Description:
The structure holds two protein chains of two kinds. In chain A, 85% of the residues lie in helices and 0% in strands. Chain A is mostly helical. In chain A, helix 2 (30-58) packs antiparallel against helix 3 and helix 3 (62-90) runs antiparallel to helix 4. By secondary structure, chain B is mainly α. The longest helix of chain B has 29 residues, at 12-40. In chain B, helix 6 (105-113) packs antiparallel against helix 8 (135-156). At the A-B interface, helix 1, helix 2, helix 3, helix 4 and helix 5 of A face helix 2, helix 3, helix 4, helix 5 and helix 6 of B.
Amino acid sequence: MDGIHFAILASFCWGVSAVLVRLGVNSISPTTGTWISLLPGSLAIMTIALLLHLQDILQLPKVAFMWFALGGFLNFALGRLLNTIGIKLVGVSKAAPLFSTAPVFATILGITFLGETITIQLILGTSLVVCGIVLITSEQLQR
Amino acid sequence: MNYIKTMVSDHPNIFGYLSALSAGASYGMAQTVGKVITNDYAHPIVGTGFALVSGFLFVSIIFHKQIYIDVMTAPLKGFIWLGLSGIGSASGVTLLYFALDNAPLVVVSPIIAISPLITILITHITLRKLEKVTARTIAGAFLVVSGVLTITISSSL
């Protein structure tokens, strides 16, 4: 199996995962839903990381763990919780395109804080994303 | 707290869209932090592993009361769906690393960028009774994906 197949399978797994969240939050609050969904992932990925990179982990500086905590808060506590709330309130099909806008925010932050450059492709891409967001959100807000 | 709950139940669409967009912003900030981690400190899977554990601990500490109530009262079915969702999500992350190990970023990132369309397709097939996928949603998703593709391809070239 090559990289393309793995990437397609990854996208498929995330799609199935979002649909399962929609089913789960019918009977459980988004906060607990987020907590449960993080449990298997934490165990699985941490185990793989320990098995493959134990020596590197033992040599990590203390400051690295502060970055891990910040990344964990933004991605898996705040991001995953807002993702679950979004799915519960407007459904998977409308929420999924909206939280896939992460690269736009990442690029804007990269320009602001990491000194990356503004390109025509970035302006064009951002314009397309904004049009898509307006199209999706205006449907139910008009009602 | 009750005021917020009332506001959300009165305007679910507005808060739902704001939540989903804020999730995108939060993921975007996390990607920027992730760049610092992978550039300066650790392999992506090590960073993701520790970030997942940190996220799990944050949620456990902040929402322990609600979690306790749900664990005691909510139906098992909900826990199974959400547990499986966590397995699906973790499998996605693992497969992404395998993809990046076996193909260049310029090939992998466009496929990952189209994942909302795959999600919509799966939703249309499996959740017909629960939610309706409209032509407008599909058109909007295509525009968002096109924009994200334009940005990710140009930044990975």
